[in-house]
Input
Amino acid sequence: MGLLDFLFGKTNDTEQQEQYCFDENGFYTFPNGIKVAHVSSSMPSVDAVLEKSGFKNKLVYNINNIGDLSIAKKIDAFCGVYQLFTNKPLLLMLGKKCFPTESQVEKILRSGKSLHSLSSWEVESILEKCVNAKSVSIKDIEDLNAIRISNNRYNIGEYQFSFENGIFSEFNPIDGFNKQVKDTFVKYGSFDRYFQHAADYWGDNQENIVKEVNYQAECFSNIGSGILTDEYYNNKFRFSDGLIDYVSMALCCSSFDVEFGKFEIALHSDFKILRRLIDEDGKEVIEVSLPQYNERRLFVDGHSKSKEESEAEEAVWDEIAEKLVSGEIDIDDILDL
Output
């Protein structure tokens, strides 16, 4: 059975059905540009319809719970597809073999948009798929925005798009703040305080302010909910101004890989380097102390080690230090390791 057999069926409403004229891909397009597709229970997936419609891996998103609307239930409408950034309705998928009018379809799609507001995570997930699939051209963006792009860069929404050889190849937030910041600190009202905390230390260094706030939010997003909601850890890992230090919390209480370079920026001078050396594999080993939290951790080759790994490594180096003091080995022996 082919796609058209999956998509379409007959209806008793012959007059309305005769107004529909399906294209070779099995879609009816209204004069306003909105498409309609009938999708039976045997259809493989919504993705299959998106691919057939030409919308897959394009700057679009779909709302699958549109069928919750009372006006959508009458015709078994279950999925709406929209243009990213503009929210323009593009496609309505129906489970029932009926033929709604243009105004009905448009009303359902516009009402359906109120069911869901895209998060920064969702937007960036769509953009990443487009970049990986190399599926969006510079012409697509020009047609979408009725403009001409001359320097391979263009700002859309909160992002700057970059193009290589005529294909959408990269995107970056215009303000520099990542999706974790927008979906955590901004959403829950703590952004201003984290921004000010960073600005108090970095002054006019906007680049480091952005890096610090981004990394605090990134660490927040990678700490387990059990730790995040634990009163003990929430009270323990706090800066002097009362803000929770999610970078140190992630370093000391989670398996998240904390990067030393970002840790340095986020912690300012609130840590001490106890040891810094090169191990037998040629990797840099850095032991840091967080006296305000009574914690010590190791970074190897720029990446954090767990508490257990840190303690095992520290035991080795403590043994070496004792042998140095006793004269059992000398500094040349360490350099030869």
Q: What stands out?
A: The radius of gyration is 28 Å. The chain has 16 helices and twelve strands. The CA atoms of residues 91 and 281 lie 57 Å apart. The first strand starts at residue 28 and ends at 29.
